[in-house]
Design a protein that fits this description.
284 residues; alpha/beta; eight-stranded mixed β-barrel; 50% helix; binds ligand C2E; binds calcium ion
Length: 284
């Protein structure tokens, strides 16, 4: 009965929600995945909107589970819940630094790595990052850590002061901090100037700009413009996420958005494919 599909299992445990079963199964799978090294990083270019040049690449985790490739939106929540995000995050950091060392050396490109709230609160967070840099030879200025504003702000004042301390220490080593999914959390825009932040990533929900004249479209334009104005004042480079069309790119350029990332430029690709992509771009 254990090996049966989740629908059958839920017949035997009518009190248990299918979702919970799913999470438990994923957590068990994650534990094995760590041991078997089933995680892979893909990389997605971050592009200078004015010149088209690749400035950085974002490392995005992929899990080749025995059931097939599992998207992060399905397993990251289970990894956060179980605490497994900590060792998974260490793996991602070390892998990303190791891959990025050659891209930085050859092309001067930085790597941005997602870190979860659970990770940045750990006392060993700073040494984990510094170890990954040392092992790979990647200098601090080639590493950007992406943290969501929720992860930074949610846990309460004392925790936040501690996290800010960790990030400040890393910035002392040249590492930059990007605030991810900006605009979706609860912080006021004014908060930005008090956080140890070097780069702002504007959430894809705002940057899916079109030529529509309905209220929702006009509001998206206005929000994007407001965030970009603020970044300009604070002297923080902004990256627009999920740029899918050249029309969106045009709008963003008109709004003086310096950087973009999205399927228009490239989807996330395996390291070997990025090697080829970068070599091609350099040859042009
Ligand atoms: P995120 O950090 O906001 O990453 C951006 C997501 O948008 C990625 O999804 C990327 O593949 C997707 N994307 C990029 N360009 C486009 C586009 O033009 N259109 C659309 N519709 N989507 C686009 P992905 O790779 O599935 O990752 C989902 C989330 O999982 C990430 O959101 C991040 O929160 C989390 N994640 C991924 N890798 C890691 C990791 O190593 N550590 C942690 N803590 N979280 C990770
Ligand atoms: Ca991200
Ligand atoms: Ca994001
Ligand atoms: Ca996200």
């Amino acid at each position: 009965a254990k090996a049966a599909g989740k629908n059958q299992i839920s017949v035997f445990h009518p009190g248990l929600r299918v979702e919970q079963l799913d999470q438990a199964r994923i957590t068990e799978g994650l534990r094995r995945a760590l041991a078997r090294e089933e995680f892979v990083l893909n990389y997605q270019p971050v592009v200078d909107l004015a010149t088209g040049r690749i400035q950085a690449v974002e490392a995005l985790l992929r899990w080749w589970s025995p059931e097939g490739i599992m998207p992060p939106d399905r397993f990251i929540p289970a990894a956060e819940e179980s605490g497994l995000i900590v060792p998974i995050g260490v793996y991602a950091l070390r892998r990303a630094c190791a891959d990025a060392a050659r891209w930085y050396e050859r092309y001067g490109i930085a790597v941005t790595v997602n870190v979860s709230g659970r990770q940045v609160h750990r006392p060993e967070f700073v040494s984990t990052v510094l170890d990954a840099m040392r092992e790979s030879g990647l200098p601090g200025e080639a590493l950007i850590l992406e943290i969501t504003e929720t992860a930074l702000l949610a846990p309460g004042k004392d925790d936040m002061a501690r996290v800010i301390g960790y990030l400040s220490e890393l910035r002392g080593h040249g590492v930059r901090v990007a605030i991810d999914d900006f605009g979706t959390g609860y912080s006021s825009l004014a908060y930005l100037q008090h956080l140890p932040v070097d780069v702002v990533k504007i959430d894809g929900a705002f940057t899916t700009l079109g030529s529509g004249t309905d209220t929702a479209s006009r509001q998206r334009h206005a929000f994007t413009q407001a965030i970009l104005n603020l970044c300009e004042v604070l002297n923080l480079p902004a990256i627009a996420e999920k740029v899918e069309t050249s029309e969106q790119k045009g709008f963003l350029r008109d709004m003086q958005c310096p950087l973009g990332q999205g399927y228009l430029f490239s989807k996330p690709v395996p390291a070997g494919d990025l090697d080829l992509l970068l070599a091609d771009a350099a040859a042009e």
